[in-house]
Hints:
It contains seven helices and 55 strands. It is mainly beta and about 950 residues long. A hairpin with a 3-residue loop joins strand 22 (about 295-300) and strand 23. The radius of gyration is 44 Å and the shape is elongated. The N and C termini lie far apart (about 90 Å).
Amino acid sequence: MFLINYSQKISVLLAFQKPSHTFTKIHLKGLRTNRIHILFTMSFIVFINTFSFAQELPKKKPSIPAEQQKDSTAAAVDSIVIDSIIKPPTNIKEIDSTKKDSTKQEGLLAGIVNYRASDYVALNQRKKEIYLYNEAEVLYQDMEIKAGVIVIDYSKNLVYAGRIKDSTGYSQHPVFKQGENVIEPDSIVFNTETKKALVFNSRTEQQGFKVYSPITKKENDSVYFMKNGKFTTAEDEEDPEYQFVTTKMKLVPNKKVIVGATYMEIYGVPTPIALPFAFFPMTKKQTSGIIFPSFGEDNDRGYNLQNGGYYFAISDYLDLAVLGDYYTNGSYGLRLENNYSLRYRYRGNVSFRYENLLRSERGFPDFSQSTIYNIRWSHSQDGKANPSSRFSASVNLGSSTYFQESINQLNQSNFLNNTLASSVSYSKTFSGEPEVNVSLTASHRQNTNTGDIDLTLPTFQMSMGRIYPFAPKTGTKKGAIHNINFQLNTRGEYSIQTNDSIFGKNEMFDDARTGMRHSIPLTTNFKVFDHFSVSTNANFEETWTVKTVKKLWNQTEQEEVEIDQNGFDRFLTYNVGASVGTTIYGMYNFEEKGEDKKIKAIRHVMRPSLSYSISPAFDQYYETYDVIDADGTTIDQVEYTRFENSLYGRPGNNYSSSVGISLGNNLEAKIRAKDSTETEPEKIFILNNLNFSTSYNIAADSLNWSPVRVSGGTQILNKKMSINFGMTLNPYALDSNNSVVNTYNINNGGSLFRLTSANINMSYTLSNDSFSGKESDEDKASSQESARSGGRTDDLFGKSQDFADKRLSDSDKNKDDKDENNEFYNYKMPWSLRLAYSANYGNTRRENQISSHSLMFSGDIDLSPRWSVGASSGYDFLNQGFTYTQLRFERDLLSWRMNFSWIPFSDRSSWNFFIGIKSSLLKDLKYDQRRRPDQQVGN
């Protein structure tokens, strides 16, 4: 029965191999009749083919087995002889010796082979092989092989490399290097002619991408095919915390990696995380690609995707990232980020952000819609590009409520910004005698609380270098005459004061003002009595305007009428002054002969100054109009100037003759140096500055003395704490209506001075490196992001964080400090602390109250080599409540990182969780969840 079925299958097979229209039952019957002959014929053919193939195999000669155990990889090497990379031996026909020409013979190898070994190098002429043992090394063209055992078969152009096995195991694994590519396998077979290779149990690394493959076929210099490979970015290759297992892989060094079906293992345990295929770019140049978004949930807008989009690597000098946000209630956002740079010329970045935010759902009573935007531009020119001209830009403008309303993670630390400011300027220097500087500046300042905007489009400035008309042509300038100098300054502006509600509309130009001011300062200086410096000055200013005002009294409406008059007009003012000052040094020594006290001396430096200035009254620019009641009676006369709305103010109409007094102080101490090897004492500041200033107006009929202003500052705790303070002291008293009267406060039963205002500001930065003498490495990326948006750079309002974007993450800590086996870690636990204290007091009209009183702090601490926590918060002592608070937690999971950020209260309360792979190659493999809590505590 078996033979019949087999013959039927054969007959059908033959019929399909030669189809014909004569295919009938007669043929099938004939085949069934001769089935025994057919089976015999096929068996004979198979036997002959098998026998013939066996004849081609070389006969093995009996040999004495070696005592050394054979490497397990040798069997694998023998099994691949039929692979395409091994070139079979060529039959060489002997030629008559008289016809041989030694000059025309070609070598077996294309280059010189350099080889060496520590134990021995053996040459087998019969087999045409070279054996190298122990620390063997072969150099051939751009190929380099180091291994325990190397065999060079120069008849087949093959190089075999393997390990050495001893009682402890295997040692001296092969290291194959070709160009920049390095592979560390168990064994390798390399064809020096075709440059193909078979690699067993190879390990290679490409830009932190570590790949292991049991069998690798090297096709050429740039393509590797791998079977059943594994890849990871973990530092521990022997026991990685995670890896991806794939059936097949194609590796093009420094270009790309393509894998087939892949699944993930965590510490050797398979997970359901799988991919049908994957592509990983490996180029060292920037490349375009998809930016995966992060996921979140918001009570008012539903589920959302944030900061997803596409990155365009346009060129080496220009790139563009297009990012977007989408919320399930219909809200959306768009962000364009552009960076450009040209070496030795300029660099900059442009950012445009637009958000259309819907609150709640359409049809609900709490539904609202808002459209907000923000534009940022930063441009800096290299100083070497053009020494005579410079262009720079720092732009931050947009909707006043952008940072307050936006819920994008990048803007969290900037929503407390009160001011947006911009400046774009171009300056040009014309060398010569005198030198001329010209600049054009467009500026913008925006109050985000009120929405008021001040624009200058543009500001033109020109200044001419100082000219010394009486200076000698050679030698130094001496005396008052030689030092007489003057210069010319010109400033023109087109100023707009508008509001965010009409910004960009025609109405914003209705109240625009234009003006230009020319000034010529004339100064000289000289010394008297060798210790006093005297300077005199005279300043002439002419102001131009194109719009003046005319005021009248409307008797019918009983109101003032103001009429704008267009046309060029100008006014001229001047003032003169002089000042004299000196420097007084005082030294008090604590140390006596033979003593070595810690405080050796205190030095006090005083800089007193006395000044006098005269400003005449310019009554010629003032006019009057009569105030007439309904009965026609003149009841008042009002004085005004047509230049009241001038961009640079009005000319003064009060004569002033004022004497100014100021005193600057500086206190330093000399102390014994901490380092005993130092011979000189160490200098420290007690007070960096302590300044007093006031003035007396001789021409005034009352309140001649101006308030005394006191300011000072110092740095303590090894310059880690900065303290600045100031106060205003008024010598005059207040009446029952809290108005200043021309009576000294001391004569009114009070003190010599009345404290009207005071302020103090302290900032403190401290870390564990502060006590070791090292400078701490602070993260600059997040602080720069805050600075570009107009926020703080000290993290006191929280950090700008986008966990999916490592550009804003903390810089890697020192690996030595994060070593879990470091026995000294507990004694140098990394930490940092930043404090800011501010208090303001006001008592101008007997308020006697503290207008603001707050403490802000921000700090980070590494609880263990892998755990770190941080917080940014503050306390308002005046309102008795905590300010904006952000809590941060971070866990270093070796090749992974986990971050959690939480804002526990306020109307921006939210939390963000992120876990993902650190490597930039696999950073899109992440889980990112952000959400606003359902219950909010506080406002």
